[in-house]
């Protein structure tokens, strides 16, 4: 089992568990002679694509390392594809982060870090992911699809310390997730990553998500 450092927190523990489970699944799949495809949910390797600047975004790197491991197995390397999910539309308000009520034009404001004019990838993953998986399964092998989309609205800058205070135990990691995306792109600018339009996948707009979601409990706070 891969370990990143001796002193573990909950996010590193989850990294190790997810990595081991992913490797176990890949090993099992590699032994199936009738298997035609092995399509996995993955994310960018933040340690690799940031040249070591971000080394502890565990929930992302675990998925990336599982994908690399599976692709390297003789029984899977010729059957492998992957799909990357962006940040969920629902994450901000479900986690209780300050967000303004959605306005009539379908926009909202959220708090995040660093430059407010750099877009962050959001999507209605609960409905977009299925069509994305189907498109990958129907495409040629060795596909790396990023379900990328941008949430229209406004951003208020805030610090990593603020995120760590608001999301105890997870704020540092998820805050660095945003910082990585701002500096290196959500997919780390991996040249192998393609976009939904290249496979003919139509993404659901935030307007449609808004029509199905109750935002009455969202209040903006400092």
UniProtKB/TrEMBL annotation:
It holds the Pfam family NmrA. Residues 14-139 form the NmrA-like domain. This is NmrA-like domain-containing protein. The lineage of its organism: Eukaryota, Fungi, Dikarya, Ascomycota, Pezizomycotina.
């Amino acid at each position: 089992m891969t370990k990143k450092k001796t002193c573990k927190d909950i996010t590193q523990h989850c990294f190790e568990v997810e990595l081991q489970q992913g490797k176990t699944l890949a090993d099992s799949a590699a032994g199936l002679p009738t298997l035609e495809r092995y399509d996995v949910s993955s994310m960018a390797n933040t340690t690799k694509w940031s040249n070591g600047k971000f080394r502890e975004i565990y929930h992302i790197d675990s998925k990336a390392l599982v994908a690399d491991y599976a692709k390297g197995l003789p029984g899977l390397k010729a059957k492998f594809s992957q799909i990357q999910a962006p940040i969920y539309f629902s994450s901000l308000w479900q986690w209780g982060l300050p967000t303004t009520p959605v306005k009539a034009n379908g926009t909202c404001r959220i708090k995040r870090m660093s430059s407010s004019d750099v877009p962050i990838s959001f999507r209605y993953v609960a409905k977009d992911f299925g069509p994305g998986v189907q498109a990958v399964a129907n495409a040629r092998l060795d596909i790396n699809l990023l379900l990328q989309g941008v949430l229209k609205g406004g951003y208020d800058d805030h610090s990593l310390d603020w995120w760590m205070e608001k999301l105890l135990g997870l704020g540092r990691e998820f805050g660095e997730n945003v910082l990585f995306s701002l500096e290196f792109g959500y997919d780390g600018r991996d040249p192998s990553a393609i976009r939904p339009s290249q496979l003919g996948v139509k993404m659901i707009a935030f307007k449609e998500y808004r029509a199905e979601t109750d935002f009455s409990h969202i209040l903006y706070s400092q």
